[in-house]
Amino acid sequence: MNSTLLTDHSEVSLKKFLSTLPPVDQVGATARVEMLATRSIKNESKNWAIDLAIRMVDLTTLEGADTPGKVQALCAKAIHPDPMDLSVPSVGAICVYNDMVKVARTALDLGGGQNIPVAAVATAFPSGRASMEVKIQDTKDAIANGATEIDMVIDRGAFLAGKLGLVSDQIRAIKEICGSQAHLKVILETGELVTLDNVRKASYLAMLAGADFIKTSTGKVAPAATAPVVYVMLEAVRDFYKMTGLRIGVKPAGGIRNTKDAIKQLVLVNEIAGPEWLDPALFRIGASALLNDLLIQRMKMRDGYYASPNYVTLD
Questions:
Q1: Overall pTM surpassing 0.85 (yes/no)
Q2: What pLDDT score was predicted for residue 60?
Q3: Is residue 267 part of a domain?
Q4: Is 251 a catalytic residue?
Q5: Distance separating alpha carbons of residues 288 and 95, to the nearest angstrom
Q6: Low-confidence spans in the chain with pLDDT less than 70
Q7: 66-77, pLDDT tens digit by residue?
Q8: 233-256: string of b/e by CB count within 10 Å (b at 16+)?
Q9: N or C: which end of the chain has fewer CB within 10 A?
């Protein structure tokens, strides 16, 4: 990599670098993920994978009807996903809208979940259609209320119009606000990027601008976290590490609803990025319904039978 690229974020330099990225072989990427999806794992490994997936879940509620009570209940579940089995690990984070950050932080702290971070969706989530002043204030408010992870959305319109310098400047501005107080997850909204080539370019653009994580989607646009998209993003973080020595995390969000889907994601991580990424510090899954299925499958592995759906709480 050109050693000046990490400090020179001009439109010309960004376009020059991104033009050197090899095109994505869409047929090859699809075939590879389909092949990896056929992998089976032994029961001992499945137990480990289920607990790892639970630790990677960003337990999420992003609805206009969210209430303090709903968020407090979700925080209790984040701390002890199965109150009847305290060996079940806590989740990776709670992800909420800005105005619920303080509610979530207070509930986690009072319930013994001080180590569980609160992630706030910011910068005019999910559309990203707001002035930079609004996006900056949005981020500052989230951090002031206790968020230690910021999930920002990029301006997809600017990216698709070729305004790469503008997108980079916005990410870098939010990263500067985060500083050492919060990790920055950059949401690409891959369902609107049209091609896997664009996914690769947007991944590099976000990483060059300072993203700690790159995230597939808001969960509000279909398709969301498709396997080929995650494959391309995992390739990007792997290759970026080889170029810079920096490990960037990946967060698929949207459409991962059951244990089989989650384990397929872990296989992708291991085979494409490498085992170093099999860690909640470098891989998260944005989900709400997934946790219940992980809990039911975990009980099946432990007791040999499926629990009633009433065994787990509704999200």
A1: yes
A2: 95
A3: yes
A4: yes
A5: 10
A6: 1-7, 307-315
A7: 999 999 999 999
A8: bbbbbbbbbeeeeebbbbbbbbbb
A9: N
Tokens coding 242: 């080889």
CA distance 153 to 165: 16
Res 2: pLDDT: 44
- The catalytic residue among 201, 251, 261, 293 is 251
Query: Is residue 149 in a domain?
Result: yes
In a domain, 177, yes or no: yes
| Catalytic annotation present for 151 | yes
**Sign of the torsion formed by the C-alpha atoms of 78, 81, 84 and 87:** negative
The answer to whether 285 and 266 are in contact (CB under 8 A) is no
H helical segments located in 145-210: 156-160, 164-178, 196-208
Model pLDDT for residues 203-239, shown as the tens digit of each residue: 999 999 999 999 999 989 888 889 999 999 999 999 9
Is 6 within the bounds of a domain? no
Residue 193: give the domain boundaries. 11-311
In this structure, the dihedral spanned by the alpha carbons of residues 175, 179, 183 and 188, taken in order and rounded to 10 degrees, is 0
Report the CATH number at residue 249.
3.20.20.70
In the set 215, 239, 264, 293, the catalytic residue is 215
Given the residues 58, 82, 138, 151, the one annotated as active site: 151
Number of domains, the chain: 1
